[in-house]
Specification:
The chain is of the alpha/beta class. 37% of the residues lie in helices and 13% in strands. It is built from seven helices and six strands; from the N terminus they run αβαβαβαβαβαβα. Strands 3-2-1-4-5-6 form a six-stranded parallel beta sheet, sandwiched between helices. Helix 2 runs parallel beside helix 7. The longest helix has 17 residues. It is globular, with a radius of gyration of 17 Å. The chain starts with a helix and ends with a helix. The structure holds magnesium ion (MG) and zinc ion. Magnesium ion binds next to loops.
Length: 201
């Protein structure tokens, strides 16, 4: 085997570039604890932005903290129903989320099964790591888009690039930057984030 073949195999083993998207405040409006599909409010550009990632061949994975499960505000089946609804709206517009990963935990939760520290609550990178294993993705070639510094923190923890959007909490977060956690880009919204990502690829 030549060196070139060997490095090609290593690259394939390392997985594909992907885009990890926060849900609330990034894909849809952040209304606090979102219990039912009828409360989902997409931003006007979301379907177009996700479709552009699909057309570029980049897997799109939602990563979202849903501590409402641990707090007893809603259940895992309710979270999954919201995600099915989101996918049906996207599908009608020719756009696709490849997978959803959520953290149902919170250290101070009231539902015993979920009241725990975990590695998947952002800014931890457990969701990104799990998705990367399941879907053969390479975080080092990938991007995370979110409206909070915890999203940028998850990107950093995973070795991905982190983009802060000014929707949701983003405009407020921009004014309160944590020390030593610069975003790779700060842009107005998801469609601008997608433009930035596609310029890097
Ligand atoms: Mg968010
Ligand atoms: Zn978790």
């Amino acid at each position: 085997m030549s060196l070139r073949e060997a490095s090609g195999q290593a690259a394939r083993r390392a997985g594909r570039a992907a885009v990890f998207l926060d849900r609330d405040g990034t894909l849809i409006e952040d209304i606090g604890y979102l219990r039912v599909p009828s409360d989902v409010a997409f931003y006007p550009w979301t379907v177009d932005a996700v479709r552009a990632l699909n057309q570029a061949g980049l897997p799109v994975v939602v990563i979202t903290n849903q501590s409402g499960v641990a707090r007893g505000v809603f259940t895992e089946p309710m979270v999954e129903e919201v995600h099915r609804h989101m996918s049906s709206v996207l599908d009608a517009g020719g756009a696709r989320i490849d997978a959803y990963y959520y953290c149902p935990h919170h250290p101070h939760g009231t539902v015993a099964a979920y009241a725990q520290r975990c590695d998947c609550r952002k800014p931890g990178c457990g969701l990104i790591d799990r998705a990367s294993t399941d879907l053969d993705l390479d975080p080092a070639q990938s991007f995370v888009v979110g409206d909070r510094w915890i999203d940028v923190g998850a990107a950093r923890a995973a070795g991905a690039r982190g983009i802060l959007v000014r929707t949701g909490y983003g405009a407020t977060e921009e004014g309160e930057p944590p020390p030593d956690l610069p975003a790779d880009a700060i842009v107005d919204n998801l469609v601008e984030a997608v433009s930035w990502i596609l310029r890097q690829c």
